[in-house]
Amino acid sequence: MISARPVSLSILSAGYCVHPEFLTLRGGALRPVKFPAGYAVIRHPDLGPILFDTGYSVRFFQETASLPDSLYRHITPVVFEERDSALHRLREAGFDPADIRYVVLSHFHADHIGGVRDFPQAKFIYLQKSYDAVRSLGRIKALRAGFLPGLLPEDFLARSLPVTPESAQREFQHSLPFEKAFDLLGDGSLLAVEMSGHAAGMMGLFVSTAEHDYLLCADTVWSSRAFRENRRPHPVAGLIMDSRADYEMNFQRLRQIHMQYPELRIVPSHCREALAAWGTGGIR
């Protein structure tokens, strides 16, 4: 196991967006394809269900009802049904929204934070660098960064547990291209690493179940084919990246991890293949 304490993991999606594949995968199709808004429910043996991102919620449509924010949903059309929301899935599994103690946010793009208001008691865990990159942006710059501040609750900062360079870290026992990981819960169950590039301070998460090791790599790539076939996005995609250099560094890290540990399940948030292979359709 990569992490020190096993958990249960359910990989799901709450809606999807549509845009041409070639923008995310060089040589990909010109036609629009679906990109699921993935999230994960991690069932910790002591702390119960923990969310890694949330996917979309109906609030995305409320926040993009008028200009200039409506440009978001016109440029990247979104399809969402309430039955796929993190809130609905958790209720189906018998959990009250107040049961969710922690929501881990990989970064602050709207398709990752769309449902955070649904969990009124949750503490929010994220890399401080990630929130610092968006918190002071004006409306137009926030839109260009994919950030809709109205998706966050008014007491967001009061409920935040930001991860800083001084936060507790743990050395990996495996030969991975990260020196250390942030030990988010202090028990070795959730090991976070910075995977900036697509967004500043973006977080990836190593977790282990009793059967498999996983890397939830957020938007480090948009599909498993990218790192498996060594296919980067179209250069135009660089226009929406925080850092092309950081993107390249973490792309190469994924390639290295995949080649060293082919049995490790690397899960990009928007990968239809990973969702089809390892998605659970419900919470286990």
TrEMBL record:
Is Chaperone there in the keyword field?
Answer: no
Coiled-coil stretches: none
Q: Which reaction does it catalyse?
A: 3',5'-cyclic UMP + H2O = UMP + H(+); 3',5'-cyclic CMP + H2O = CMP + H(+)
What's a Pfam family in this record? Lactamase_B
Source superkingdom: Bacteria
Named from the GO MF annotations, one term is: hydrolase activity
InterPro entries on file? MBL_superfamily_lactonases, Metallo-B-lactamas, RibonucZ/Hydroxyglut_hydro
Instruction: Say if the entry is tagged with keyword tRNA processing.
Output: no
What are the names of the required cofactors? Zn(2+)
Q: Which Gene3D superfamilies has this protein been placed in?
A: Ribonuclease Z/Hydroxyacylglutathione hydrolase-like
Q: Which residues form the Metallo-beta-lactamase domain?
A: 36-270
**SUPFAM superfamilies recorded for this chain?**
Metallo-hydrolase/oxidoreductase
User: What are the alphabetically sorted keywords of the record?
Assistant: Hydrolase, Metal-binding, Zinc
Q: Where are the transmembrane segments?
A: none
Homology family: Belongs to the metallo-beta-lactamase superfamily.
| Task of the protein | Counteracts the endogenous Pycsar antiviral defense system. Phosphodiesterase that enables metal-dependent hydrolysis of host cyclic nucleotide Pycsar defense signals such as cCMP and cUMP.
Descriptive protein name:
Zn-dependent hydrolase
Print the organism lineage. Answer: Bacteria, Bacillati, Bacillota, Bacilli, Bacillales
